[in-house]
Design goal:
The chain is α+β, with helices and mostly antiparallel strands. The protein contains eleven helices and nine strands. It has two domains: 61 residues, Winged helix-like DNA-binding domain superfamily/Winged helix DNA-binding domain (Arc Repressor Mutant, subunit A), CATH 1.10.10; 177 residues, Beta-Lactamase (2-Layer Sandwich), CATH 3.30.450.40.
């Protein structure tokens, strides 16, 4: 238990200090023996949790702490109503469907129901796709605070995965704006060639998710609006008629029983 406490205290130390520290500084701050301090720092370095940003034996945490924390948060149990909604959409669409959440610069799939069609999009829980470059990711981003969106886009790596890959910050921002006004997000060969996806943002508390229907473009491309209406109606049925209006910012309503949410809410 003592070693666990030491690791947590060390992390808090760096959070307060906000700069690298030497072995001597850490040892002196906590009153730890130099040998014990050396062993702890060396272990964390070997596991990728600390690194030496300078050439003078000074240490600082790596982003691995943040990555693990985001992965744990993304694995929180999903609300039962959301799982029921996903099953309903899978049955009615006949395509692969999933729920995803943010994990750093990616969207990670938390629940997946694969299509039974012989030609289908194959996905598994834990699959990660670029946050900025997919309908799933952009749906999630649309519900994040503007400052967080800006930070994510500045760190994004714009790579040509397929014909539909967005290649600039402006392209992603335009896509998000158009998608919210339309009521749904779409990608075609954006990350996986010949794959099409339709996504709608879902918000529970302070967590943003995306529900996505995806499959081969030769099938999905003909049913975009059908799937979009199917998802909106499914949300109204399983989560409440005013759910999107009350919880999702700026998304146009496609269901007659719902009001359009206020983009400035």
């Amino acid at each position: 238990m003592k070693q666990v406490v030491n690791v947590l205290e060390l992390l808090e130390f760096f959070a307060e200090r906000k700069k690298a520290a030497s072995l001597a500084e850490v040892s002196q701050h906590f009153g730890w023996p130099r040998s014990s301090t050396f062993n702890l720092l060396s272990t964390l370095v070997s596991r990728g949790f600390l690194y030496e940003p300078e050439a003078r034996g000074r240490f600082y945490p790596t982003p691995r702490w943040l990555t693990l924390a985001q992965e744990v948060a993304a694995a929180e149990p999903l609300p039962e109503a959301l799982l029921s909604l996903l099953k309903d959409i899978a049955q009615k669409s006949g395509e692969t469907v999933w729920i995803a959440a943010q994990s750093g610069q990616h969207a990670v799939f938390l629940e997946v129901i694969e299509s039974k069609a012989s030609v289908r999009y194959t996905a598994k829980v834990g699959t990660r796709v670029p946050l900025h470059g997919t309908a799933t990711g952009q749906a999630i981003m649309s519900q994040l605070p503007p400052a967080q969106q800006t930070s994510l886009l500045r760190k994004a790596v714009f790579k040509r995965y397929g014909e539909g890959s967005p290649m600039s910050i402006e392209a992603v921002e335009d896509s998000i704006r158009v998608s919210l006004n339309r009521g749904w997000f779409v990608s075609s060969s954006a990350f996986t060639p010949d794959l099409g996806g339709i996504a709608v943002p879902i918000v529970f508390g302070d967590r943003a998710f995306a529900m996505t229907v995806a499959g081969p473009w030769f099938r999905v491309g003909k049913r975009l609006e059908e799937f979009a209406h199917l998802m909106h109606e499914g949300v109204a049925l399983h989560l409440g008629q005013d759910y999107l209006a009350k919880n999702v910012k700026g998304l146009k309503s496609l269901y007659p029983g719902m009001r359009t949410s206020d983009p400035d809410a």
